[in-house]
Design goal:
This protein is mainly α and about 100 residues long. Helices cover about 75% and strands about 0% of the residues. The longest helix is centred in the middle third of the chain and has 45 residues. It starts with a helix and ends in a 9-residue tail after the last helix.
Length: about 100
């Protein structure tokens, strides 16, 4: 026989629920911010990357195509730092 008391789960800790709520809000904000920044700069970097690839392909400066990798990594680090600063302090990890 299955009783409701046997299937009942313990009530979640309100502090842990609040922590999860803050983490989800931060994740939504980062997703929105990162997407917005991506679409703002996509055209600029596309033109720049294509220009560097053409310069490299023409033989004017053969190493120019390697610069596109440097740009993307540098910009990614900078964007993540900006988004972290805009979101405020991180929530502390849950205590076990």
């Amino acid at each position: 026989m299955n009783t409701p008391a046997a299937d009942a789960r313990p009530a979640p800790d309100p502090a842990e629920l609040r922590l999860l709520e803050l983490q989800f809000a931060r994740m939504r904000g980062m997703l929105f911010g990162y997407s917005e920044r991506f679409f703002e700069r996509f055209c600029t970097y596309l033109v720049l990357a294509l220009t560097l690839l053409v310069i490299s392909g023409m033989g004017v400066f053969p190493g120019a195509s390697l610069f596109t990798t440097f740009l993307s990594r540098h910009d990614e680090r900078r964007l993540l730092a900006e988004l972290d600063a805009a979101q405020g302090p991180k929530a502390p990890p849950p205590s076990r």
